[in-house]
From TrEMBL:
GO BP terms, alphabetized: DNA integration
Presence of the UniProt keyword Hydrolase in the record: yes
Assigned keywords, A-Z: Endonuclease, Hydrolase, Nuclease, Nucleotidyltransferase, RNA-directed DNA polymerase, Transferase
InterPro entries: DNA/RNA_pol_sf, Integrase_cat-core, Retrovirus_Pol_polyprotein, RNaseH-like_sf, RNaseH_sf, RT_RNaseH
Record-linked PANTHER family: PROTEIN CBG26694 (PTHR37984), PROTEIN NYNRIN-LIKE (PTHR37984:SF5)
Species per Swiss-Prot/TrEMBL record: Stylophora pistillata (Smooth cauliflower coral)
Protein name, per record: Uncharacterized protein K02A2.6
Chain's gene name: K02A2.6
GO MF entry, a single one: nucleic acid binding
Positions of the Integrase catalytic domain: 3-154
UniProt key word Nucleotidyltransferase: yes
């Protein structure tokens, strides 16, 4: 089931096992993950309906409810309750708890919380503490707290007492201020800036004390981070919080000759000072860095700077422009017998984001504030010399070529999806292109690796860990036709330049009529290559004309092999295959009919008569095919596994008899020493050996 788009739309309900001798009914909202847990003495259908009715009075009715097949949820009382309230009740499949896995996981979390609480509190007390913590903490799936998603706000907890409530203080000051710009600010007095960041919006209030010592707001600032600023590390986001308001207030306070004191509940101002020092405001005034609990009665400590005192008194001071020779000359900081230690240069630290901008075509990314090369799948140093060495390595060059190849394949797959969408409303046509591409590659990898698609549900958590969201096996199987179509496009692109090729085809009726068609050709580097171009499952065996039509449509129509391209046709000796090739020769006049040598030799051998050898082979094969103990004893004696016979592997009989000839000296001792192994076949084989000894003695 997908995630509902609205809160309180689908609820998952379950009963937890006995916890401290009592049963618990668990209800969780699928959208917001808001939990409700009820302690119940009895778990009858009537009591369950009563608890749900009390819940719905407070929270309202949902659209759907999901539960297991417990007797409370399948009873007539519960059915009448859901029908009367217009609720759609869905029960999960028996022995398939993942249907209501959200409720199951909430039960596990609660049991762990109760087990970790070693106090003597009552179960209800522990339950209340757990619910408050669960509802106010950000959820791992939604990254927001259940309270914020359901109620639109975070519930207040004791943790909020640690963090000062700047919003409440600002609102209080705005309430008592009358309106924002009255009284007018005094440009020769101190200003105070209070700053706060809520989610992705930095805000600030510019304050000034009146003659009675009461602070009044004289200006405010609020601005959302842009798309690039949202991707900044946390420390850089925090430093923007004071930088952006001060740049905004610069116009209003530029004529003030007093320092601006910035109060904030974080301490990144040392980092922000380097970013802000070049502005006009910082060039004429000083930024005092202080940590404050935003108390109104805290005294401001002034920094005694002689130049600043003179400026405040009305002096007009300006730094003179240095001569060119003076700017180029370096004076050592300490002279005498001690040499200069260190460098007077200011180290400019380049962030990982700057390296991405500096090397845009090398597929760098920032992961956990570290520079990562996606082409090589590894973390690298941010040092420029290390990066230069890395991008010149062969490993990085191979990684870039693989990414380019992957992009080309992705474009081919996307084009395949577009063609299918134009022909019909394909499954998943409304999904994002990246998600469809990811699902396609998963299905293609499973099929090419020979892994059954039924295993994808077990591997789904691993595949989704660092990728897009998948779906279940039934929906992924609908992508198989798209994978097949894309594979055919690859084959057509590969075979379009083939000048000469031979065709190999065969069919089998063992588990149903199947037809396989293979083309074999030699590449420019003289490497023999063969490709399977068709595998058809048919209702019945084909006749000569039907087989010729299949081959013709495959070679000439689907893969565009011209009249001179097919120069050979390999088949077994069945008459229907010969009739089909004779029809193909009308279009492919250079086609040479080749009957399978292996089948020919095998069929010739069937006409040879070896009475004693055939009799020995029959009993020998029968002994090992019906006795696992015989196979085990043979392996212990010879160190080799016994060769087995198969009706469909026509060369398997030769493998069996060749092994007998190689270990012929062990065959008779093996039969005489193991009288408990397949007694009937053993007795007949020993009789054959006895007959051979008699014939040899004569």
């Amino acid at each position: 089931m997908g995630v509902p788009s609205l809160p309180w739309q689908r609820l998952h309900i379950d009963f937890a096992g006995s916890v401290e001798g009592k049963m618990l009914m668990v209800v969780i909202d699928a959208h917001s993950k808001w939990p409700e847990i009820f302690v119940m003495e009895i778990t009858t259908a009537e009591e369950t309906v009563s608890m749900l009715r009390s819940l719905f009075v407070r929270m309202g009715l949902p659209d759907h409810m999901v539960s297991d097949n417990g007797p409370q949820f399948t009873s007539e009382t519960f059915r009448k309750f859901t029908t009367a309230n217009g609720l759609k009740h869905v029960t999960g499949a028996p022995y398939h708890p993942s249907t209501h896995g959200q409720a199951e996981r909430l039960v596990q979390s609660f049991k762990k919380g109760v087990k970790a609480d070693k106090s003597s509190r009552t179960l209800q007390h522990k339950l209340d503490r757990f619910l408050l913590a669960y509802r106010s903490a950000p959820h791992a799936t939604t990254e927001l707290s259940p309270a914020q998603l359901l109620l639109g706000r975070n519930v207040k907890t004791r943790l909020d007492l640690i963090k000062p409530d700047v919003t409440r203080k600002v609102n209080k000051k705005l309430l008592h201020a009358g309106h924002l710009v009255k009284p007018p600010p005094k440009l020769k007095d101190y200003f105070t800036v209070e700053i706060q960041v809520i989610d992705v919006t930095p805000g600030a209030l510019l304050l000034q004390e009146d003659d009675e010592g009461v602070e009044h707001p004289v200006g405010y600032f609020s601005k959302r981070f842009n798309k690039s600023q949202k991707n900044y590390p946390t420390i850089e986001k925090e430093c923007l919080a004071p930088v952006l308001p001060l740049e905004h207030f610069q116009v209003d306070v530029s004529s003030s000759r007093l320092p601006i004191v910035v109060y904030s509940d974080h301490n990144p101002l040392a980092f922000s000072y380097d970013l802000f020092v070049d502005t006009t405001l910082m060039a004429t005034q000083s930024l005092t860095e202080e940590n404050s609990d935003l108390s109104e009665n805290e005294d401001v400590q002034e920094i005694e700077d002689p130049i600043l005192v003179a400026v405040n008194a009305g002096a007009s001071l300006r730094s003179p422009t240095s001569a060119v020779i003076a700017r180029k000359r370096k004076l050592p900081a300490n002279e005498g017998k001690y040499k200069q230690r260190g460098s007077s240069k200011t180290t400019v630290r380049t962030s990982a984001w700057d390296r991405i901008t500096e090397y845009p075509k090398h597929h760098f990314a920032v992961v956990n504030r570290k520079l990562r090369c996606n082409a090589c799948s590894e973390i690298i140093s941010e040092k420029k010399s290390s990066i230069e060495k890395h991008i010149k390595s062969k490993k990085h060059e191979r990684g870039l070529s693989e990414i380019a190849k992957s992009k080309s394949e992705s474009q081919t797959i996307t084009a395949c999806f577009q063609r299918r969408d134009n022909r019909e409303k394909a499954c998943g046509s409304t999904l994002p292109a990246e998600m469809r591409l990811f699902r396609f590659e998963v299905v293609e990898s499973f099929l090419s690796g020979g892994i059954a698609l039924t295993k994808v549900d077990a591997l789904r958590p691993l595949l989704e860990k660092h990728g897009h969201r998948l779906t279940n096996r039934a929906h992924l199987s609908e992508l198989i036709p798209a994978v097949l179509e894309n594979e055919k496009d690859k084959l057509k692109k590969e075979l379009k330049d083939v000048k000469e090729a031979s065709v190999i085809f065969d069919g089998t009726a063992r588990l149903g009529e199947a037809l396989a068609v293979i083309v074999r050709y030699v590449q420019e580097n003289f490497q023999p290559t063969q490709r399977l171009i068709r595998l058809d499952i048919l209702a019945k065996a084909l006749k000569g004309e039907e087989l010729a039509q299949r081959l013709m449509s495959c070679l000439a129509v689907d893969y565009h092999f011209g009249p001179t391209a097919i120069i050979g046709g390999m088949r077994d000796g069945a008459s229907v295959n010969g009739a089909a090739l004779r029809q193909l020769m009308f279009f492919y006049p250079k086609l040479f009919d080749v009957v399978c040598f292996s089948h020919t030799i095998d069929n010739v051998g069937n006409h040879f008569e070896f009475k004693i050898l055939d009799l020995f082979a029959r009993y020998w094969i029968s002994m090992f095919s019906h006795s696992y103990n015989a196979r085990l004893v043979w392996r212990e004696r010879t160190g080799q596994s016994i060769r087995t016979f198969s009706e469909t592997r026509w060369w398997s009989k030769w493998e069996v008899l060749r092994q007998v000839s190689e270990y012929f000296g062990d065959v008779e001792p093996f039969l005489r020493e193991n009288d408990e192994v397949s007694p009937g076949n053993r007795r007949r084989l020993l009789e054959i050996f006895f007959l051979l000894h008699l014939m040899g003695s004569q």
